[in-house]
Design brief:
mainly alpha; 78% helix
């Protein structure tokens, strides 16, 4: 299993970076701003199909709404990102709010209602608050990627400790794709994350959280700390757009340090306490 995860992680990372690079060199400036991050969404669909849908396609059809929700999210994110150009520098407009509200309703009816439970509803509420937090605050892609990376690491700890290897593969594959996109953004610093990336990665976050909590409702307790990761930057002043490399490194170190605190609490609850 570990060897499979390692191979798939390398393939996902390199594949994401290569496809993003191809789009970067062959597309116009406006088009690659949308399609570059959208590569991550396509990668998420592939990772989900590999670990969740294909192994269960014969014996279990309950995963179809999840894949359907992910595919719709990727399509809508690319469409809205290209037509309306909803970006981080213009988050507090009515169109952005309506778009995020539609995503929440889509996730509610496709992912929560079919298997509604108190824990699933609690996870969904936290997810909505986190989405609003990320999309309404002025921030660049650096903060979002770092906090998402830390949150997924926390989820992987929970999945690994509870023997949820399909969910672990989904999370590790997602992390690999995010690293690949991050490398592309490191080279193309003039670009930033937009809705083409944010929506698919948040749907993956909700799907993973739901699947883990469905396995054991008591896991909602450490899951609470996972979502606190996205609020770890509230005590840090936002970095100025276009800052040099050194201030960005200092800023990234501060965010990572604060985001690791909820992850440490998750580790304590899962490993030491036995959640």
């Amino acid at each position: 299993m570990l060897l499979t995860l390692a191979k798939l992680s390398i393939v996902s990372l390199l594949g994401t970076f290569i496809f993003a690079a191809i789009i970067s060199f062959t597309s116009s400036k406006k088009l690659k701003e949308v399609l570059g991050p959208a590569i991550a969404g396509v990668g998420f669909c592939w990772i989900y199909s590999y670990f969740i849908q294909f192994p269960n396609s014969i014996s279990n059809l309950t995963d179809i709404p999840e894949l359907f929700a992910l595919l719709i999210t990727v399509f809508l994110a690319v469409t809205i990102g290209s037509l309306q150009k909803i970006r981080y520098d213009n988050q507090k407009n009515w169109l952005s709010i309506l778009a995020d509200l539609f995503l929440c309703l889509l996730a509610l009816f496709l992912l929560i209602v079919p298997n509604a439970s108190p824990t699933a509803i609690f996870i969904f509420v936290m997810w909505c608050l986190t989405l609003y937090r990320v999309r309404s605050s002025h921030q660049d892609y650096l903060r979002t990627i770092l906090m998402t990376f830390c949150a997924l690491v926390g989820l992987s700890i929970i999945a690994w400790q509870n023997g949820l290897f399909a969910e672990l593969g989904l999370i590790i594959g997602t992390v690999s794709i995010i690293i690949g996109i991050s490398l592309w953004l490191l080279i193309n610093r003039q670009h930033s994350m937009n809705i083409s990336f944010i929506w698919p990665v948040f749907i993956i976050l909700l799907i993973s959280s739901n699947r883990i909590v469905e396995n054991d409702s008591y896991l909602v307790a450490p899951m609470f700390f996972i979502y606190l990761v996205y609020f770890a930057d509230t005590v840090i002043a936002p970095i100025q757009h276009g800052s040099r490399l050194l201030p960005k490194l200092v800023y990234a170190t501060k965010i990572t340090s604060l985001a690791l605190l909820p992850i440490i609490m998750t580790l304590i609850m899962v490993v030491v306490i036995g959640y």
